[in-house]
Write a structure and sequence with these properties.
Elements lengths: L1 E4 L4 E5 L6 H16 L5 E6 L4 E4 L16 E3 L6 E4 L3 E7 L9 H18 L5 E3 L2 E7 L5 E12 L2 E9 L19 E2 L11 H15 L1
Parallel strand pairs: 2-3, 4-5, 10-12
Antiparallel strand pairs: 1-2, 3-7, 4-6, 7-11, 8-9, 9-10, 10-11
Helix pairs in contact: 2-3
Length: 214
Amino acid sequence: MKNTEMNQKIEWKISSSQVPYEETLATMESRVAAIRKGESPELTWLLEHPPLYTAGTSSDPSDLIDKDRFPVYQTGRGGQYTYHGPGQRVGYVMLDLKARNPDVRAYVHDLEEWLIQTIAIFGIQGERREGRVGIWVVGKDGRENKIAALGVRIRKWVTFHGVALNVNPDLSHFGGIVPCGISQFGVTSLADQGIDTSMEEVDQVLQKTFSKIF
């Protein structure tokens, strides 16, 4: 794991190997508490998980189609079922909104903009959809597919959890759930859209676009 600092307030961690989900939860809990106390700087952590499903606070049990396919973790973030796995860049964002802008909607909008600006650099037009969480891509056939997901939790104005961008995951792994409770649309990735890139390049772009927004 390497640490970089883009400014005095935000620390960056980039994990080169897959990180167990339990480890990320424990790290986020500890860091959020330290940020609240003013003992640690804000943190954005980029990583990959081994294949797993997570259940948000609005999850419908019927959306877990294959409960034995991968481990399933209950989590305190908002949203429904999501998949995490190799080839997907997860960004856990721990910011002090009270010191920035204590507006949850604005924060979610900024996370969306972070993803939209990131994939735009790779030539992909990402779009928001009213009533649908995440970032969407419209194919040549007019079909809409999700390329990135969001799920956040805020405790005393400090954020955790964050975003997941599909770079080059095995898209068949999404078949064990109804992603985010939306069955009428599919999922896609940068690779699925014809973009051949490395995770390192994606990380560089994520850091660049993040600095413009946050």
